Amino acid sequence: MNTLPDPLLLALLHDDVPCGDLTTQALGLADAAPARLEFRARQAMTVCAVEEAERLFVLAGASARRFVASGRSVAAGERLLAAQGPVPALHTAWKTAQTLVEWASGLATATAALVAAAQHDGRRVPVACTRKTVPGTKWLSAKAVRAGGATLHRLGLSETLLVFPEHRLYLREAPAATVARLHAAEPEKKLVVEVCSGDDAAVWAEAGADVLQLEKFSPEQVAACREGLAALARRPLLAVAGGVRADNAAAYAAAGADLLVSSAPYTAPPCDVRVEFHPGDSEVA
């Protein structure tokens, strides 16, 4: 997986240390003997952003080595990363790197739980996460989603054709005409239409939509929708969105959903990473 570019990582360091580390400077630790530290998981987790953490220490003037990659599932106590170098350099990068790994791993771990739950009778249903990330975190949120085993529903408005009811307020044509117009305008794109009822689903399925995004449908409503569209020569894919979580993913899979769309991982609590400092500059091993 790609790593956040250096200018963005430097901006994170500058945000935390805009005018130097006041405590380290006041204590005179610039002359202290080099030291080392380790990151260890305090809990089972799916790891993410260890590559960024490693690079943060290097940019701060230390050396670092990671022992796992983003997407790896680890047990409590497992070593994730080690760094060594001047004490001020370690303290400059320490908290930013730790927070980044904890936050991104929390998102990846929640995604992995949702992906694991999205199955029924051996049939796994793909999971996609939305673009409803905290502003400014999209790049790392996308990395965490991938690390957890899901895909991206859409990264932004430039990617996909997704017609919401709010778009349809302005239309004065039959659904079939809208579908034909959009397919002609963007022939390489699949057309997704968000619907809020079984009746809406039937209308847009018959009009030729490629995917129906079933907004806030219950599992029972999803099953009824799938059954109602079964006679169509070309049934659209059914993507369930709105309220999809790890605790109901299996029910949606059993109901016949083709895709689960969720924003739930973005509000997951961070994972817990323990940081251990050690005096001395023995090699990171």
UniProtKB/TrEMBL annotation:
Q: Which domain of life is it from?
A: Bacteria
Keywords, A to Z?
A: Glycosyltransferase, Transferase
What Pfam families does this protein's entry cite? QRPTase_C (PF01729), QRPTase_N (PF02749)
Instruction: Please state every residue range assigned to the domain named Quinolinate phosphoribosyl transferase N-terminal.
Output: 21-105
For the keyword Cytoplasm, the answer is no
Q: Which residues form the Quinolinate phosphoribosyl transferase C-terminal domain?
A: 108-275
Matching PANTHER family, A to Z?
NICOTINATE-NUCLEOTIDE PYROPHOSPHORYLASE [CARBOXYLATING], PYROPHOSPHORYLASE MODD-RELATED
Identify its protein family: Belongs to the NadC/ModD family.
What protein is this chain from? Putative pyrophosphorylase ModD
Q: Origin organism of this chain? A: Rubrivivax gelatinosus
**Gene that this polypeptide is encoded by:** modD
